[in-house]
Design brief:
Layout: H1 5-15, H2 19-25, H3 33-44, E1 51-55, H4 63-70, E2 75-80, H5 83-96, E3 101-105, E4 117-123, H6 132-142, E5 143-154, H7 162-172, H8 186-193, E6 196-202, E7 207-213
Parallel strand pairs: 1-2, 1-4, 2-3, 4-5
Antiparallel strand pairs: 5-7, 6-7
Helix pairs in contact: 6-8
The protein binds S-adenosylmethionine.
S-adenosylmethionine (SAM) binds at residues 5, 8, 12, 56-58, 61, 79-82, 85, 107-109, 123-125, 128-129, 175.
Amino acid sequence: MALTKNQLIDLYRLRAGWYDFSANLYYLIGFREARYRKQAVAALGLKPGDTVVEIGCGTGLNFKNLREAVGEEGRIVGVDLTDAMLDQAEQRIARQGWTNVMLVQCDAATYEFPPEVQGVLSTFALTLVPEYERVIARATDALATGGRLVVLDFRQPENWPLWLVRLGVLITQPFGVSLDLAARKPWEAMQQHFPLVTTQYLFGGFVYIAAGEGRKPGN
Ligand SMILES: C[S@@+](CC[C@H](N)C(=O)[O-])C[C@H]1O[C@@H](n2cnc3c(N)ncnc32)[C@H](O)[C@@H]1O
C-alpha cells in the first residue's frame, strides 16, 4: 500500500540524517544517480538569471547543478513536505554560502507556484504525491513561455518480469516506493498538459526523465 503523507513524513524524518549517504549506496548496483540528476537538470534548459522550483527537493541534492544552470543571479525555490529533509537542505545552503536558494515547507499538492518560472523540477518525489496530476497542472500554469517541467522518477518497465519489478520495489522501499505506485504515471499526465513531452529511459527502463514544454490550446 502507498504510504500516507504522515507515514512519508515519519519515514523521511528517520532517513534525513543519512539520506545522502544511503542514496550513494545505490551506485553499488549500477544506479548512476549523480548522472541522472545532471541529465534531468540539463533537460530543463535553464539560463543564467532563471527561476526554478524544485518539488520534493529533500536534502537539496540537485541544488548544486541547478545553481550552475541559473547562476548567482538566478533563483531556486525548494519545496518539501518533511521538516527534517529541509533541515538538511538548510545546512547544505549554509555550508555552501548560497544566497539564492529558498526553502518552503509545504505539501506539493497545495503549493502555490510563483508566476512565470522558467523551470520546475522533481526528482524521485512526484510519484509519492497522490495528487501529482494537480501538481503538474499547477506547474504548467506557472511556467513562463519556453519554460519546462522535468520529472526524474521510477516507473515500472513494461518488459520486466514480475520478480524483477518486485526486486526493484524492494530496493527502493526505504524511500517509500511500493508496488501500487506503478499505477501513478506522471508522464501520462504531462502529455495531457504539454504538446511536447520528451522522455529518456535509464537503468533498464526503471527510471525515466520526462521533459514537458509548451502549452496546449485551452490549457
Ligand atoms: C526520495 S526523496 C527525493 C528527494 C530529492 N528530490 C532527491 O532527488 O534526492 C522524496 C522527497 O519527497 C518529499 N515528499 C513526499 N511527498 C511530498 C509532498 N506531498 N509534497 C512535497 N514533498 C513531498 C519527501 O519529504 C522527500 O524529501
